[in-house]
Amino acid sequence: MTVHRATAKTPAAPGSTPDALREVLAELRRLASLPLERGQTLPPQAYTSPELYEREVERIFRREWLCVARAEDIPQPGSYLRLDVLGTPLVITRDEEGELHALSRVCRHRFMDLLPPETTPERGCLKRLTCPYHTWTYRLSGQYAGQLAGAPLMQRVDFDRSGCRLPAHRVEVWNGFVMLNLDPDAAPAAAALRGLDLRLSSHGIADWVSVHTQTWEGVPANWKVAVENGSENYHHMGTHAATLDPVLPGRDTEVDECDGRWFTMFTPLSAPGQVGTGLARRTSRSGRESQPGMLIAGIFPQFVLAILPDSAVGIRWLPTGPATHDTQITAMVPPDAHSTPGFAEKLVAMRAQIAQIQEEDLVAVRGVQRGLASHPAPSNGRFSHLERPLWQFQRYLAERLS
Questions:
Q1: Strands 88-94, 129-130: parallel, antiparallel or unpaired by DSSP?
Q2: pLDDT, tens digit only, all 402 positions of the chain
């Protein structure tokens, strides 16, 4: 990491925007106004500025619907899943009616983590949440989820138990994925994704089951570098020249004309049967099936789904700082896939393939981040037509951050 010596500056007036951040936002607005044919990459400062990162956290990640899990990760009443989102300790629970709840993991007594990772499994089943510090307990049932149930030895002080409750956050299930929002005033997730639902309706992924999940923590790159890498197949010919490109040629990708929060694109398979456990078929507007291939669907700011008819991979990115992020990849298959001949062998191959492709992507995103820090700073690059989702991403960012 390059350390720059601080220089004295006149303090900014309350509510003002620092000059450097103002310049980055102005450039973002300029780029977002360009047509795709003249589209350019974001400036290096957009991937390195701590001030811009703070703005992204407040205006995007604390206000948008984020994909954080699969609903099957919390399978039955009493199930829980521990997770941390942008430094916010959370737990997802399922009540006796099957409804999910997203609760703070911070005890209302002395701020203890209710499910400390040092002593508690990431997932499991509980009747109530019990703080390991002073054994305060919280209910997990229906409308009372998060309500204080017990606080030992608090009878001699003025304490209103009825007003003590764990903060709750909004949660929805979309196609089997758990979507979380830290903003109580946000619009429902489903409305903005109706068009994407239509694109995915023939796949039935809501009922698919996870067969493998792997997490890469502390990847040394800005979150947008990873999202952009996962939102285009142009890099297949370089980064994945020996793995994906021979069977999913990036140059053959068809990128759909989308706008807003989601995008889709399709890459035909040149060697059927070599990627995943089967083939996808793209249905033309006339209803006729065309070439087999893979459908990719992305939801800004941090989720991409790659779908074949009998396998799919979901990728979630979460920033952990201005120049670091976590990546989680989950492989899914239809419910009856386990009974197909040779499934165990295919699963072993799938896991190895996911790890190999992700390692190739990690070389790319780390390399890009190093390039962004070079001096003098590199100038804006130009987009290929295959990078339309990145151009769309700029428009999304400009709308949220300006």
A1: unpaired
A2: 333 333 334 444 444 468 999 999 999 999 999 999 999 999 999 999 999 999 999 999 999 999 999 999 999 999 999 999 999 999 999 999 999 999 999 999 999 999 999 999 999 999 999 999 999 999 999 999 999 999 999 999 999 988 999 999 999 999 999 999 999 999 999 989 999 999 999 888 999 999 999 999 999 999 999 999 999 999 999 999 999 999 999 999 999 999 999 999 999 998 655 554 444 444 444 343 457 899 999 999 999 999 987 899 999 999 999 999 999 999 999 999 999 999 999 999 999 999 999 999 999 999 999 999 988 878 889 999 999 999 999 999 999 998
Contacts of 101 (CB under 8 A, 6+ apart): 92, 93, 94, 95, 140, 145, 146, 168, 171
Question: What is the pTM (predicted TM-score) of this model?
Answer: 0.90
Which residue, among 209, 206, 210, has the nearest Cα to 193 in the 3D structure? 206
Coarse DSSP helix, strand, coil percentages of the chain, rounded to the nearest 5 percent: 30, 30, 40
Could you give the angle at which helices 223-230 and 388-401 cross, rounded to 10 degrees? Answer: 140
Largest CA-CA distance found in the chain, in angstroms, rounded? 75
